[in-house]
Amino acid sequence: MKTNWTRNAPRAAKILSGIALVAMTSFALADEAAPAAAAPIPKRAQQRADFLVGKWCSACHGYNGRSIAPTFPALAGQSAEYLATQLKYFHNLTQDDRAVTHETVFERWFTNITGLRKKERYDNAPRNEERAWDFMKGVARDLDDPTMLALGEYFAKQTPMAGRITDSHADLARGKALYLEGDASKGLIACQMCHGPDAKGQGPIPRLAGQHADYVLVQLRAIQSGIRNVEQMQALIANLGDADFAAVAAYVQSLD
Amino acid sequence: MTLNRIARWLALGLAAGAAWLAFSAPAEAIPLFARQTGHNCQACHISFPELTAYGREFKLNGYTFGEGQKVPLAVAFMGEYAHIGDNTNHADGSTLCPSCNKSEMVQWSVFFGGKLTDNLGMFGQYTFSGAPFDALTAGWTGAEDNTEFRYVHRFSSGSGTLEPDTVVGIDVNNNLTMQDVWNAVPQWKFPWFPYGVGTHPQAGFAPSAVTFLDGADSGGTTGPQRSIGAGAYIWWHKTIYAELSLYHQPWGLFSWLVNGSNAQTNAVGTNDAPSDIIDGWAPYYRLAWSHDWGYNSAEVGIFGITAKTFFCNPTSGSACNPVSNATSSFRDYGVDAQYQYNKNEPWVFSGAASYIHESKDLTPLVNAANYGFAQMASNSSDTVNEFNIKGTVYYVRQYGVTLGYSSYSGSSDPILYGQGAPGGSATGSPSSSWWTLELNYLPVQNMRFSLAYFDYTKINGGSSNFDGFHNNASGQNMFYGAIWWAF
User: Is residue A7, in this structure, part of any structural domain at all?
Assistant: First the structure.
């Protein structure tokens, strides 16, 4: 007799391998991160980071990393390792990565017929969404590794934004269910499995508690489409809809 | 080689260099500040030059974000096609606008400066006019355009933030109100493309009465490159902006800031400007309250200036020779407000409005006969009011529409706003009002195609036969196609 097992085996395998991948990545990155975290940050990099934080970061990310506009994520209380990694991703963006994203029809035609695009398109840049290009590519362009670490550690120490509800129509119950229990029918394991029961993240996995709902929503869409390349997550959220994203985003914003 | 020819070759050389820069640069082909910061245009601009909240931060921090570039240059090119509703001067049947109804290159600009140190930055612009629009005017002439230096110092005011939340700055600039960051003051209000400027003086009607603050539009007492301002400002907690600046006629070391303009020449003899030279120091103040929440950014503010201008003796030289104790005076009071919604996915909205009231004393113009001139004004004191309002919507930052309304009014002064065709006033009233509709398309971030329509409902006190010579306001309606390309 055919059981549900044979039908669900592929999805289960995907989920299990996703979890395994996350676990392995966490251990791997943790091993790599630990030595870096233990090494003291050079004074020059610390000074550069202090300067940048005071003179530039707050222009978008707000004072103490608590941003006003959801366009810019709150950085306060975020994992230092996650922040440093993201800065590295922004730093590594090249013009050929951009070719994949939000270039206009006209730009694509022009660079194609003039031959200005010199390399194969690189589809796997981890951060390739439009906002990365609008703002963060430039900020990260001139940073070196120790400065990125110093910046990450500064924001990690800030008091996170308090949980809040900004949309009275948000389906917080659905968001909570998705976050704490997942949705087997859509192939989603509970978000808390990686992001933690209180959405505070750990190591390379970002804190979501208190983050702007609209920012989380935009990132979930970007991850689902692959423009923001997070291998561990793309398969897990492949079957979710925009309403699901909005619900879980509102839920995590409400957490302290 | 005449100066004109040299200027033309220089402009063409710059054009060639700019074209090389444009086509060899990466697909985004970004101008000076974008290269310095690595940002895309839309980080700082709703659509250049209108600023977002982050763009305001960049400017108020002295243009010091990012890394100074080895070749801190950018180029902008503006082209235009102007169509006038009724191209006949009904006083004598002549053609009102010989250069209308064909395409023109309006101007080239070179931008320079940006970040000089972590605390010092500049915005520099040098602009070349386009081809001459008739046999009597010189083309390809260059002059210093909007240029300013900023020195900033940041500190924490103790309001609870760990990072500096206060910027104090010193600003030196050559164009009244260019130092502002909201898009309602005269220098930065809609429309931003210089419609009509490059074609013919009569195309794209310019109001007879403009305030001292808005003098740039009529080439009057505070036209670009006419005076130097130096001042200080404070930008506290992204909430309060306060500035005090003093404007003065250019002199000595600062003369290069007005290079190319006739800042020192005697401007007496035009029939609606007493002189172009500020007497002493003219204080300008600006106070604004700003608030950001979610995707929203709102501002309300006041601004104003008190100024005296020389009345110049007739002279055969090129410098203004002031008549002692004969000065005109101006007192301008302005209020402005702005609101922006910048979610960007996919909608952006920006609205701005300003109202300026001016009272001016023109006694020397009334008594001009005492100085060897014909009488230039009927009233020793006049008022001028300017109201401008606009709303802009952009979809995915590529498709935009702006609707604006302007209304200029003031005291009737039959001699100051006298008869003449075209463009005079049959009644001596300067009241004019018009609507502006602009459609925009940006195929790439640094290039904008525009279609603009100016609908004049009233010019100089009348909608039909406003100048007494059978020219109608609607006959001045203008339709433009424009290209603005910066790289």
Answer: no
Q: Please choose, from the candidates B132, B29, B118, the residue with its C-alpha nearest in 3D space to the C-alpha of residue B74.
A: B29
Residues contacting A140, CB < 8 A, separation 6+: A87, A88, A90, A91, A148
Interface of B with A in 39-68 (CB under 8 A): 39-40, 42-43, 53-54, 57-58, 61, 64-67
Above 60 in pLDDT, residue B253?
A: yes
Q: Does the beta-carbon distance from A70 to B38 stay under 8 Å?
A: no
Per-position DSSP letters for B169-237, written without gaps between them: EEEEESSTTTT--STTSGGGPSP-S-TTTTT-TTSS---S---STTGGGGT-TT-TTS-EEEEEEEEET
**Of the given ranges (A127-136, B310-319, B409-418), which has the lowest mean pLDDT?**
B310-319
Distance of residue B260 Cα from the nearest chain A Cα, in angstroms: 36
In this prediction, residue B227 carries a pLDDT of 82
The confidence score (pLDDT) of residue A102 equals: 56
C-alpha angle A119-A124-A125 in degrees, rounded to nearest 5: 85
Instruction: Write down the domain spans for chain B.
Output: 3-486
In this structure, what token pair is assigned to residue B49?
A: 């030059």
Task: Using DSSP, state whether B71 is helix, strand or coil.
Answer: coil
How many independent structural domains does chain A possess? Answer: 1
pLDDT confidence of residue B215:
74
- Condensed to tens digits (0 to 9), the pLDDT of residues B415-459 reads 888 777 667 788 888 899 999 999 999 988 889 999 999 999 988
Task: Summarize pLDDT for B150-187 with one digit per residue, the tens.
Answer: 999 999 987 666 789 999 999 999 888 999 999 999 99
Phi, psi of A157 (to 5 degrees): -85, -10
Can you tell me the distance from the alpha carbon of B425 to that of B290, in angstroms, rounded to the nearest whole number? 41
Report how far residue B406's alpha carbon sits from residue B425's, in angstroms, rounded to the nearest whole number: 18
- CATH code: domain of residue A229: 1.10.760.10
Q: What residues of chain A lie within 8 A of the CB of B292, using their CB?
A: 68-69
- The first and second tokens of residue B305, run together, are 């200036």
Pick out chain A residues at pLDDT < 50: 1-3, 18, 22-36, 118-122
ipTM, 2 dp = 0.83
Residue A104 forms part of a structural domain: yes
Question: What's the mean per-residue pLDDT of chain B?
Answer: 82
Euclidean distance between CA atoms B206 and B226, whole angstroms: 19
Residue with tokens 């203004």: B320
Residue A164 within any structural domain of the chain: yes
Domain range for A248 is 14-253
Contact A76, A65 (CB under 8 A): yes
Tell me whether residues A141 and B53 touch, CB distance under 8 A: no
Position B196, amino acid: G
Residues sharing a CB contact under 8 Å with residue A28, sequence separation 6 or more, in sequence order: none
Nearest to B365 by CA among B437, B432, B297, B413: B413
> Tokens standing for A187?
């192939």
Query: What is the mean pLDDT of the segment spanning B194-222?
Result: 62
Considering only CB atoms, B444 lies closest to which of A106, A135, A158, namely: A106
Task: Identify the pLDDT of residue B313.
Answer: 67
* B384: β partners: B358, B410
Q: Name the β-bridge partners of B335.
A: B302, B355
Cβ atoms of A151 and A140 within 8 Å: the answer is: no
Residue type, B473: A
CATH of region B3-486: 2.40.160.10
